[in-house]
Automatic annotation (TrEMBL):
Residues 38-57 bind DNA. It holds the Pfam family TetR_C_24. Signal peptide: none annotated. It comes from Nocardioides cavernae. The lineage of its organism: Bacteria, Bacillati, Actinomycetota, Actinomycetes, Propionibacteriales. Keywords: DNA-binding, Transcription, Transcription regulation. SUPFAM superfamilies: Homeodomain-like, Tetracyclin repressor-like, C-terminal domain. This is AcrR family transcriptional regulator. Residues 15-75 form the HTH tetR-type domain. One of its GO terms (molecular function) is DNA-binding transcription factor activity.
Length: 201
């Protein structure tokens, strides 16, 4: 783990802090693919020399780990907050999980997009896939609880329901732009997931 000076996060040379370097790296990884992106590519994108980039970050793998941790950390924290609300019903918690997942995706779109593209080609990606599976199982458990309470249908495997619902959420990365109304989008996706398209008669 790299050392940080007292009084705040380590900064690179003037003009680029680590947050900026990470944002540019995620953009490049999404555009070119992680394997096809070099530290030289990142340096050029930032207007630095190849040697200067190492004043900001130790390696390309470090950037990938931080990017994936951003997405997974936000998703996990959102689920933790939903689960902690013991005053709500299982259906309310499941709805909240869907809604908060949309919000996280929209607010961390580049990082979540990168997460959904990993295939386990590096140790960081393998670890990220393990964490994603854990999140999938936590969501499936919430579906199971809602089904057991009678709030949603119980004749479909909860893991299948979870994958279908969150597959819809994840598909937002294919067309979503970061200039829309996040709350309205989250409400729309949640309504479609639970209430469908057919107007009640």
């Amino acid at each position: 783990m790299e050392a940080k000076p007292e009084g705040g996060a380590r900064r690179g040379r003037p003009g680029h802090d680590q947050a900026t370097v990470l944002r540019v790296a995620i953009e490049l990884f999404n555009r070119q693919g992680y394997d096809a992106t070099s530290m030289g590519d990142l340096a050029r994108e930032l207007g630095l020399t190849k040697s200067a980039i190492y004043h900001h970050v130790p390696s390309k793998g470090h950037l990938l780990e931080r990017a994936l941790d951003e997405a997974l950390g936000e998703l996990s924290s959102a689920l933790d907050a939903v689960r902690a609300d013991t005053s709500s019903t299982p259906e309310q918690r499941l709805r909240a999980a869907v809604r908060s997942s949309v919000v996280v995706l929209a607010e961390h779109l580049p990082a979540v997009t990168l997460l959904l593209r990993v295939r386990g080609n590096t140790p960081a990606e393998v670890a990220a896939l393990d964490r994603r599976r854990d999140i999938d199982h936590r969501l499936a458990e919430m579906v199971r609880e809602a089904a057991a309470s009678g709030a949603i249908r119980d004749d479909i495997d909860p893991l299948v329901i979870s994958r279908l619902i969150f597959g819809m959420v994840n598909s937002l990365t294919e067309w979503l732009r970061d200039d829309g109304d996040v709350d309205a989008l989250a409400d729309t996706v949640t309504a479609l997931a639970f209430d469908g398209l057919v107007r009640a008669h």
